[in-house]
Design goal:
Layout lengths: L2 H11 L4 H21 L5 H8 L2 H10 L3 H44 L14
Amino acid sequence: MDLNSYYKEVYNSLTFKRVKKKRFISDLKESIENYRELHPTASLDDVQLKFGSPEQIATSLIADADEVCISEQLKVGTWIKRFLICSILLIFLATMLFYSIELFDSFNARRGHYSEEIIENAEE
């Protein structure tokens, strides 16, 4: 396995959004490059010992995920739920209004209610 496949495995083991994955991989590459500059004879096994296996990296990131990231994801979920509830409520109210008007019209029709319009003749 070479470094590119190592990066790919780390990328695939992360559960974040694509943008955050790319940002993390970029930072990881930079850290590994710095490490290899200090230790030019370091092999891939040495890199894995220093930085961990792809699964270890993903696990530690999830464990160390800061509260801001988690709260942002929860806020998005909350707003989606609120939007869906408001949409359903709005549809329900529109349906009730429509059927109320229909019921009122049918009630007036059964009672013999009618409306008259006076049309004035335009000819004089």
